């Protein structure tokens, strides 16, 4: 069966696919970031010495996540009217990929990348949450655009059923040279205890408050 790789341009969310062209629609269900709601406080008095231990979380500004469901069809069509359609289901498999550029990624020349390359291009440096300390799980395996990519130590994932593979297409000197892909599953365990078809981790600009637009590709098998 032929594989169809299609691009959809969006900041967040994935919808129905058509052919090798930007998708016509997608749905953003929800989006949010971690924020501390409590403020540690203690009442004291002059002359008093207090032993205090602190425990807190801080939101990363170097990574973002996407998760949800995927649907689509294989179609025979001259454009909008459908001559014939075949239903695709997530159990058939496929992958979701994200690139921080609308053009430039060469799907015919993909290979596994390195955390060092990602740190350099995305400006993550030696921070606690850089790519070196993030893309460090056991293995990575995806089949994208007819190429099987497998490596050890260059990926991570947010849930037990999903692992993000970081790949490149050549020199790896620009954001457009990197793609972040994950295999589609029928009903995988998401980070929040729910089930879904994909969960994907992507690097972002290191500057707090800066935005990063990702362009999404789907391959349905």
What this model shows, in words?
It is a single chain. This protein has one domain (4-21, 62-220). With 221 residues, it is mostly beta strands. It has one helix at residues 115-122, and strands at residues 4-9, 63-68, 72-76, 84-88, 94-99, 111-112, 140-144, 147-151, 155-159, 162-168, 178-183, 188-189, 195-196, 198-203, 215-220. It is 4% helix and 33% strand. Strand 7 (140-144) and strand 8 (147-151) form a beta hairpin. It is globular and about 85 Å long. Strands 1, 5, 6, 9, 10, 11 and 15 form a seven-stranded antiparallel beta sheet that branches. A two-stranded antiparallel sheet has the order 2-14. It is built from one helix and 15 strands; from the N terminus they run E-E-E-E-E-E-H-E-E-E-E-E-E-E-E-E.
Ends: how far apart? 7 Å
What's the multimeric state? single chain
Q: How many DSSP E strands?
A: 15
Major β-sheet profile: 7 strands, antiparallel
Return the domain count: 1
Can you tell me the overall shape? globular
Strand content: 25-35%
Cα radius of gyration in angstroms: 20 Å
Class per helix and strand makeup: mainly beta
Q: Mean pLDDT across all residues, rounded?
A: 80
Runs in which pLDDT lies below 50 for 5 or more consecutive residues are: 1-24
**Tally of contiguous helical segments:** 1
Order of helices and strands: EEEEEEHEEEEEEEEE
How much helical structure, as a percent, in the residues? under 10%
Features:
221 residues, seven-stranded antiparallel beta sheet, 4% helix, 1 helix, 15 strands, two-stranded antiparallel ribbon, mainly beta
């Amino acid at each position: 069966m032929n594989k169809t790789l299609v691009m959809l341009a969006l900041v967040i969310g994935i919808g129905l696919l058509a052919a090798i062209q930007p998708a016509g629609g997608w749905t953003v269900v929800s989006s949010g970031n971690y924020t501390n709601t409590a403020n540690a406080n203690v009442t004291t008095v002059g002359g008093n010495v207090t032993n205090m231990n602190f425990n807190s979380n801080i939101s990363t500004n170097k990574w973002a996540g996407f998760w949800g469901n995927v649907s689509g069809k294989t179609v025979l069509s001259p454009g909008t009217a459908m001559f014939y359609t075949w239903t695709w289901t997530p159990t058939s498999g496929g992958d979701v990929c994200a690139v921080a550029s609308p053009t430039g990624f060469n799907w015919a020349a993909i290979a596994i990348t390195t955390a060092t390359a990602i740190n350099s291009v995305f400006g993550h440096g030696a921070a606690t949450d850089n790519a070196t300390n993030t893309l460090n799980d056991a293995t990575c395996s995806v089949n994208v655009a007819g190429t099987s990519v497998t490596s050890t130590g260059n990926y991570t994932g947010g849930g037990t059923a999903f692992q993000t593979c970081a790949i490149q297409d050549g020199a790896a000197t620009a954001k457009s040279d990197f793609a972040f892909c994950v295999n589609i599953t029928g009903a995988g365990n998401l980070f929040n205890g729910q089930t879904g078809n994909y969960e994907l981790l992507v690097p972002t600009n290191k500057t707090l408050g800066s935005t990063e637009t990702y362009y999404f590709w789907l391959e349905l098998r």
